[in-house]
Amino acid sequence: MTFAVLAEPARRQILDLLRERPRSVGELTAALGLSQPGTSKHLKVLRDAGLVRVRAEAQRRWYELEPGPLAEVDAWLAPYRWMWADRLDALERHLDAADEEKP
């Protein structure tokens, strides 16, 4: 379920914004360039998946990142990291060599 939710680019962008700090629907709508109903629909999907939580404060609702499900995704990805680590190490060696060749 979490992977299906994360497949949508706008939802990933919402999570990126919430990683910085809690935000209101209005802030998220402005940052995303979506309509308020569109933003709310994405927030509902994220809430239902347990990826965000909402906190009411007076008349505003603040959306916050819920890290638990993301930790599960991270744990699932852990065995695959060796593939990226080797490539990143190779890139680092290549860039270091290129820097050494510069006059």
Descriptive key words:
single chain, alpha+beta, elongated, 67% helix, 6 helices
Characterization of this structure:
The chain has 103 residues and is an alpha+beta fold. The chain contains six helices and three strands; from the N terminus they run H-H-E-H-H-E-E-H-H. A three-stranded antiparallel beta sheet has the order 1-3-2. It is elongated, with a radius of gyration of 19 Å. The mean pLDDT is 89. Keywords: DNA-binding, Transcription, Transcription regulation.
A few lines on this structure:
The protein is of the alpha+beta class.
- In the predicted model, the low-confidence regions spanning at least 5 consecutive residues are none
Q: Which percent band covers the strand fraction? A: 5-15%
Number of contiguous helices:
6
Helix content: 55-70%
List the helices and strands and how they pair.
Elements: H1 2-6, H2 9-20, E1 23-24, H3 25-32, H4 36-48, E2 52-57, E3 60-65, H5 68-77, H6 81-101
Antiparallel strand pairs: 1-3, 2-3
Helix pairs in contact: 3-4
